[in-house]
Amino acid sequence: MSEIPPWPALSVRNMRALLQRVQKGSVTVDDEMIGQIGPGLVILLGVRNGDDDAAAVYLANKIVNLRIFEDDNGKFNRSALEVRAELLVISQFTLYADTKRGRRPGFSDAAPPEISIPLYERFVELLKESGFTVATGEFGAHMVVEIINDGPVTIMLDSEDKRRP
Question: pLDDT above 90 covers what percent of the chain?
């Protein structure tokens, strides 16, 4: 497995990923399992209006190098690269739910398919190029995602974090 190349300058917007460290995970569409992984990460990926390739590269790089797997002493000292984690990537526009007004969330910040599909596919491609086993859901489909959380460890990443001091 190899690292993803360093990230370029970031866009104004931000892409989000919710990571869950898992013992196993799977995704089913229309009663058919279309993806499954063993130990690794389930990555729920949200693409926002205005996101670009730089955000996808930043998040992919951050995820594969983030030390959230335990070493022999039970400390978070190992990355997905080091443990040869398997990855399940699910598109998740609801990560951009706006709940400020009313009782029904709005999703106007989520990118439309013509923006989000290519960036989702680019993100998956970056992970595969690094040598990971990557399973995916089906973009835009109603999916049943089974997650057997390990820890539990759940972490929200945002490409906006790259710009913060």
Answer: 76
DSSP conformational letter for 108: T
When pLDDT is averaged across residues 116-145 and rounded to a whole number, the result is 96
Overall CATH class of domain 16-159 = alpha beta
**Identified catalytic residue from 28, 69, 93, 136:** 93
What are the boundaries of each domain within the chain?
Answer: 16-159
DSSP code of residue 58: H
Of 53, 83, 51, 54, residue with least CA distance to 66: 83
153 vs 9, more confident: 153
Is the pLDDT reported for residue 165 higher than 50? no
User: Is 20 annotated as catalytic?
Assistant: no
Q: How far is CA 8 from CA 49, 55, 63, 129, in A?
A: 19, 9, 16, 17
Residue 65 has pLDDT above 70, yes or no: yes
Contacts of residue 73, Cβ cutoff 8 Å, sequence gap at least 6: none
The torsion angle over the Cα atoms of residues 146, 143, 135 and 108, rounded to 10 degrees, is: -120
- Does this model's pTM top 0.85? yes
CA distances from 64 to 43, 46, 81, 165 (A): 11, 17, 6, 22
Q: Residue 94 catalytic?
A: yes
Residue 93 annotated in active site: yes
